[in-house]
Amino acid sequence: MSNLNTALVTGGGRGIGKETAILLSKRGLNVIICSRNQKEIESTVKEIKSSGNGQILGRKCDISVLSQVNTLVNEVLDKYGQIDVLINNAGITHVKKLIDTTEEEWDQTLDINLKGTFLLCKAIVPHMIENNCGIIINVSSGAGKVGFEDISAYCASKFGMIGLTESLSREVPNYNIRVMAICPGEVATKMQEDVDKQYYELNKHKMLHPRTVAEKIADMIFSDNKYENGIAVDLPS
């Protein structure tokens, strides 16, 4: 798609989101990143601005809170007039057996990973329909297709993202909107490191680099006919 102008990337302060924002800015898009971590946002914005590629805007936003999502989306639309690309990348995990997972931890994981995706789609899709153009990529996981022990909430949220992707893709094809998911294996991110630092240090050389995932996301965005609408693309480690 050659008429893409503006992209919103959640969880854009680090990892996959940051690398995706860098790639999209290099392609000349106006890029908006959001995160709950103001310091990480500011660092990424500064890095992209110093490279001189595209326009970058960073905002603190908890995507699980409707009012914050609406404020963010309205600001972007006021500034740029459209949102052509939405990358739902923000995510968290708690490593615990199901019986040890608290209700708060379950809710937080589902709220950020899945509800946040729903809220962003709900806010942005009407504008994509109006413009008859849009691409949404939901960053799921290999754990969205196979359940793993000790991350039941995370798996549930990532399975849910794939279901949401498939459903929404069937609601919008008449409006030239594509909705897809990507399912990376283990990625060398801070979230992965925080889960188990010792395991991370021993195995990070075998993990996907966040840039590799970002490059796949960019390929999914800019290859019009290569990826089927509603697909969940595997990207093994």
Short description:
The protein is 48% helix and 16% strand.
What does this molecule look like?
48% of the residues lie in helices and 16% in strands. It is an alpha/beta fold and 237 residues long. It has a seven-stranded parallel β-sheet with strand order 3-2-1-4-5-6-7, sandwiched between helices.
Set out the fold topology.
Elements: E1 6-10, H1 15-26, E2 30-35, H2 38-51, E3 55-60, H3 66-80, E4 85-88, H4 103-131, E5 134-139, H5 152-169, E6 177-184, H6 190-195, H7 197-203, H8 210-222, E7 232-235
Parallel strand pairs: 1-2, 1-4, 2-3, 4-5, 5-6, 6-7
Q: Rough shape?
A: globular
Strand % is: 15-25%
**Unreliable parts:** none
Q: Tell me about the largest β-sheet.
A: 7 strands, parallel
Count of DSSP-assigned helices: 8
The sequence of SSEs as H and E is EHEHEHEHEHEHHHE
Task: Write down how many β-strands occur, each being a DSSP E stretch of 2 or more residues.
Answer: 7
Strand order in the sheet with the most strands = 3-2-1-4-5-6-7
| Helix proportion range | 40-55%
Kindly provide the radius of gyration, computed on alpha-carbon positions and rounded to a whole number of angstroms: 17 Å
- Structural class designation: alpha/beta
**Through-space gap between termini:** 28 Å
